[in-house]
What we know:
Layout: H1 6-17, H2 26-46, H3 51-67, E1 88-92, E2 101-104, H4 111-115, E3 129-134, E4 137-141, H5 148-154, E5 159-163
Parallel strand pairs: 1-5
Antiparallel strand pairs: 1-2, 3-4, 3-5
Protein name: RHG40/28/18 C-terminal ubiquitin-like domain-containing protein
GO molecular function, one term: GTPase activator activity
Domain RHG40/28/18 C-terminal ubiquitin-like: 88-164
Amino acid sequence: xxxxxxxxxxxxxxxxxxxxxxxxxxxxxxxxxxxxxxxxxxxxxxxxxxxxxxxxxxxxxxxxxxxxxxxxxxxxxxxxxxxxxxxxxxxxxxxxxxxxxxxxxxxxxxxxxxxxxxxxxxxxxxxxxxxxxxxxxxxxxxxxxxxxxxxxxxxxxxxxxxxx
Length: 164
């Protein structure tokens, strides 16, 4: 979690994005930082990966998983993992609880709905995030308004993790 204010982040990022004379004064730096502070709220939208690229990464990961030779080491079966029904996911919060929680998905279930079911640490004040890990993708943090049933249908073999 970044505890820097928006202005401080802008002051750090501005010289890297707006190249100028090496003999810059403080005034141009403040002007560039003000421009960055204006752009920062839109950065989360501008930095999202388009769906077609994400689908291509999933296909590449599936192809590389098929090419790998099977491992001789056997994985231990999970103790708390009985088979689940369709549209039911098992969410783990390894930093909070030792067991996983089963949740049924419907067409309106979002990542925010899932993270709200887990208690937050009042002392740290960190926001909990839902991650999709494994299956046909490495690991990615899901946006709070992401519809989970769509993600589940694209990647049914993934693990669902709650992390700060």
